[in-house]
Amino acid sequence: MASASTVKKGQKVGQKMGQKMDQATHSNHGSNHGNHNDRAEQSLTVTRLLTRKHALNESQLEARRERTDAAPGEVLLKIDRFALTTNNITYAAFGDAMNYWQFFPTGQQEWGHMPVWGFADVVDSKVPGVAAGERFYGYFPIASHIRMQPERVTERGFYDALEHRRPLTSAYNQYTRVTHDAAYAPELENYQMLYRPLFITSFMLADFLEDNRFFGATRLVVSSASSKTAYGTAFCLRDLPGISLAAITSARNRPFVEGLGCYAEVVGYDDLETLPTDAPTLYVDFSGDEALRARVHHHFGGALVYDCFAGSAQNTGFLRDTGLPGPKPEFYFAPVQIRKRNADWGPEGVNRRFNAAQRAFIDYVKTPANGWLTLIEAQGFGAAQDRIASLVAGGSEPKAGYVVRLDGSERSNDRARMTEE
After folding, report:
1. Which of 85, 89, 289, 409 could join 380 via S-S bond, C-beta 3.0 to 4.6 A?
2. Could you tell me the domains of the chain?
3. Between 35 and 295, whose confidence is greater?
């Protein structure tokens, strides 16, 4: 594939897709006209948004021709819509270290394909049990189309069995048929994309902490408390007896966090040392800030019983030993707790509990009077590029929930370099 022009911070440059398509369509003018028409009718434009691995605010669009039909054992899906949150930046930030780049390889060392959660429709299928027109929810690249090789096909959905995905975490390889998703409602698609991948982390983190009896703590101190995953966790724990929640957040986001009503105490980062140290304390770290972690350890001293690192989009280094007093910081990874609960409760039991908790959370979040969410819907790859650049720069408002629609975007003014395949 020919290299495409680099796009920085959402600026769109390069060849117009329509111009290149016309060149490709008319390049054989004067040859066998019937064969040419057949070829044109059997091709589609596949557009991909790629992210520079070590400068996540930089992206580029690439497009190529592909056949419109699926190969034997394959399905072709058209991606309709997806959400963009700091969670996606986290995937990219840990893309090499945790193999997130491996789900949708680009074949280019410098560029990766950022994963997103969204909905796609089957364009063509050569797989029994998966029909054209069906809609699936799952883990997709930012692209117009994707080909998969379904296995373990059931009424609920399928797993993508492409060879490069087999060693990867199976939870990300599962695609759910909306007609057999107990939690699905068409009017809630945007909320599902925004919150489901985050709330599974929140729900399982809350369960992990409760399962371990909070490691003896009676107070939880949560950093980056305005993030969706953080306040989702707080929502799950808000009515638990014997546990008090304290939030640490920026001065800009403090009014929003105070308005959530999930935290008994809310302080700015500069005021961390005003929190009392008279109770066994567990630190839930959504910031990944080493300097803040050090302050937490030194301030709480012997009262700190556990340090749980839940991931961060803004600070992308892995945990390292910095010689802090107190407990060693421990990395939390949701799929580990999911596997444990699948063994404890069975997959259906896990799904039942999660769906009930998620529906209660979404019902609360989408109620305007509660003031938790402003839903923003944009269209096209250019909007996705702009949003990614904003998220990387830390410019997201905590109330904003951003979703991107791609339907019809091939006919928009988005630009990419076309290549033939």
Report:
1. 409
2. 7-181+373-419 (3.90.180.10), 193-337 (3.40.50.720)
3. 295
CA 151 to chain centre: 23
* CB < 8 Å & 24+ apart, contacts of 152-157: 153/127, 153/128, 153/129, 154/129, 155/180, 156/180, 156/181
b/e burial code for range 201-228 (CB count within 10 A of at least 16 → b): bbbbbbbbbeeeebeebebbbbbbbbbb
Contact 96, 76 (CB under 8 A): no
Residue 410 has pLDDT above 90, yes or no: no
Radius of gyration of the CA atoms of the chain, in A: 23
φ, ψ at 281 (rounded to 5°): -125, 140
Angle between helices 228-237 and 189-211 (to 10 degrees): 60
How many angstroms separate the CA atoms of 376 and 316, rounded?
27
**Tokens coding 327:** 């407990």
Question: Per residue in 319-341, pLDDT tens?
Answer: 566 778 899 999 898 888 999 99
Q: Would you say 375 and 401 are in contact if contact means Cβ atoms under 8 Å apart?
A: yes
Specify whether the CB–CB gap between 51 and 111 falls below 8 A: yes
Nearest to 77 by CA among 161, 17, 135: 135
* Average pLDDT value for the chain: 86
| pTM, 2 dp | 0.81
Q: CA 358 to CA 267: how far, in whole Å?
A: 28
Spell out where 166-217 has E strands.
Answer: 174-177
- Of 133, 201, 246, 251, nearest to 358 by C-alpha is 201
Hey, which bits of 3-134 come out as E strands? 7-8, 43-52, 58-67, 75-84, 111-112, 115-125
Structure tokens at 130: 């998966």
In this predicted structure, what is the pLDDT of residue 335? 84
Q: What is the pLDDT of residue 319?
A: 54
d(CA 244, CA 223): 14
Question: Taking the mean position of all CA atoms in its chain, how far away is CA 206?
Answer: 19
